[in-house]
Amino acid sequence: MKHQRTAGFAALGCALALIVALSLMQGAQDIAPARLWQTLLAADGSREHIVLTGIRLPRALTGLLAGAALAVAGAILQAASGNPLASPGLLGVNAGAAFSVVFAISILGVSEPGLTLWFAFAGAATAAAAVYGLGQSAGGTTQTLLLAGAVAGGFLTALTTVVLIYDQNALDQVRLWTAGSLSGRRMTDVAAIAPFLLAALAAALLLRRQIMVLSLGRDVAHGLGQNRRLWLAIALILSVLLSGGAVALAGPVSFVGLVAPHLVRLVAGADYRVLLPAAALTGPVLLLGADTAGHWLSASAAFPVGISTALLGAPFFIWLARRGTGGAR
């Protein structure tokens, strides 16, 4: 079993390295594999070097960070709620973060990623608290939680649309971002948000044993001496930090937080001590893979990755629902 897990992580690492290389090579003018590393290190002011370090490298790093954050956030939410369909997008967290960022840009005139990050966090936290409150008031079941998330997500998405309809300048500024996009990021943008995402990812991986106990349900967690209320709060905080930071960087990308944990479960089971680090590798593979596929299909470097993930993730969601999977446990 240990050798199988090692081989699985090695395969994920190779797949991630391959998709990152493809992301860096692909563009209006492709870079040959033999020249990729040479071009990346050659600070000679050439056009290839400027394009690679100024456009493609930030795009790849955005996909790495956002994909890992969304996948881990989805896995944590599934553990905390006991619902296999839980994810930042389905529970309204992404929509809350997106509305908050659009509000900051349109109404308050804030545009720096280092500042919009805090609005994304605040929006994600507010949406999470509202969904949890609605779910508890409606019975506290996982079904009511999912329904509350759908209602909150739809309402916040409608508010975001209203703001953008009445502010053409804001619409022009965030049009691709609101669909979910890895393009247009700068290294300074990535550097502003990366520390928060990396810290939250590290915390989630360090606490994966406690999250594993949380996923086993109320009775088992109580029998093992876990303070369930405390760890539910910690899980929610981690998911808000991860999804809020990912949305601030890449926009409200959907389905990555749902699909990545389930792909890992199909292969490695539901042990969160393995699932969380594996999801952190699978998420970027999915996100960068969808981004690469979108560019191939559209021949446009600005094709929103959120559209690609929705096209790929919606059938997977339908399959999960028809499969009748019972829970994240």
TrEMBL record:
The chain crosses the membrane at residues 58-77, 89-109, 115-134, 146-166, 190-209, 230-260, 302-321. It is a multi-pass membrane protein. Its main location: membrane. CDD domains: TM_ABC_iron-siderophores_like. InterPro entries: ABC_BtuC-like (IPR037294), ABC_transptr_permease_BtuC (IPR000522). It comes from the Bacteria. Signal peptide: none annotated. Pfam families: FecCD. Keywords: Cell membrane, Membrane, Transmembrane, Transmembrane helix, Transport. It is found in: Cell membrane. Belongs to the binding-protein-dependent transport system permease family. FecCD subfamily. This is Iron ABC transporter permease. It comes from Alloyangia mangrovi.
